From TrEMBL:
Region (Disordered): 71-111
Amino acid composition bias (Low complexity), ranges on this chain: 78-88
Family: Belongs to the EF-1-beta/EF-1-delta family.
Gene3D superfamilies: 1.20.1050.130, 3.30.70.60
Signal peptide range: none
Gene source species: Plutella xylostella (Diamondback moth)
Name assigned to this protein: (diamondback moth) hypothetical protein
A Gene Ontology cellular-component term: cytosol
PROSITE patterns: EF1BD_1, EF1BD_2
GO MF: guanyl-nucleotide exchange factor activity; translation elongation factor activity
Biased amino acid composition, Acidic residues: 93-111
Translation elongation factor EF1B beta/delta subunit guanine nucleotide exchange domain segment(s): 137-223
This protein's record includes keyword Protease: no
CDD domains recorded: EF1B (cd00292)
């Protein structure tokens, strides 16, 4: 599916529909296509565009250096009616193509040619080694349930968001009716797997025992 100007209401709606059953723009992992669309969108979509907002918050949780290291992906943004190729990824591929690992010239390789080849191999290896490694992350949707219909849900959410951990980023939230006038707080977060334990996070939320009855994991996705 290709869509046009994602800064327009129509383009954002198309993006939201596109992401209804997808985690990323191209494939099962984040790619340069996500970066391209993310930069075109420019700011978080409205809460009514839940799928686009969920995707935007996930991409925003990565640093610019991490996004730059993502592999190439096919972008659905259109130019003249045809999907555009991710320019940044293509440029990086072109840069790699400029490195001739095997050299060229006569069959009888002299010392100078061997030295030049070794320098190119060394430069290529250093270039690859400087690329930052992807950090394993997970997107989690939590159901935070109150004791009764008299629980101050705004204060509950405020307390939940006061929880700060290295590798934790809070996202969008909403109240979901569960019956008898009671609402539960449904809140999204992104964690770095090596830094944040899901069990520790849920236990910390449950420490607000005057407000929170229980915490359940509604959805858990590796990013």
């Amino acid at each position: 599916m290709a869509f046009g100007d994602v800064k327009s209401a129509q383009g954002l709606n198309q993006l939201n529909q596109f992401l209804a059953e997808k985690s990323y723009i191209s494939g099962w992992v984040p790619t340069s296509a996500d970066v391209q669309v993310f930069e075109q969108v420019g700011k978080a979509p409205a809460a009514s565009l839940a799928h686009a907002l969920r995707w935007y918050n996930q991409i925003a949780s990565y640093t610019p250096a991490e996004r730059k290291a993502w592999p190439a992906g096919a972008s659905p943004l259109t130019a003249g009616g045809k999907p555009t190729a991710p320019a940044a990824a293509k440029k990086e591929e072109d840069d790699d193509d400029d490195v001739d690992l095997f050299g060229s010239g006569d069959e009888e390789e002299d010392a100078e040619a061997a030295r030049i080849r070794e320098e190119r191999v060394k430069a290529y290896s250093e270039k690859k080694s400087k690329k930052p490694a992807l950090i394993a992350k997970s997107s989690i949707l939590l159901d935070v349930k109150p004791w009764d219909d008299e629980t101050d849900m705004k204060e509950m959410e405020k307390l939940v968001r006061t929880i700060e951990m290295d590798g934790l980023l809070w996202g969008a939230s909403k109240l979901v009716p569960v019956g008898y006038g009671i609402n539960k707080l449904q809140i999204m977060c992104v964690i770095e797997d090596d830094k944040v334990s899901v069990d520790t996070l849920t236990e910390t939320i449950q420490e607000f025992e005057d407000f929170v009855q229980s915490v359940d994991i509604a959805a858990f996705n590796k990013i």
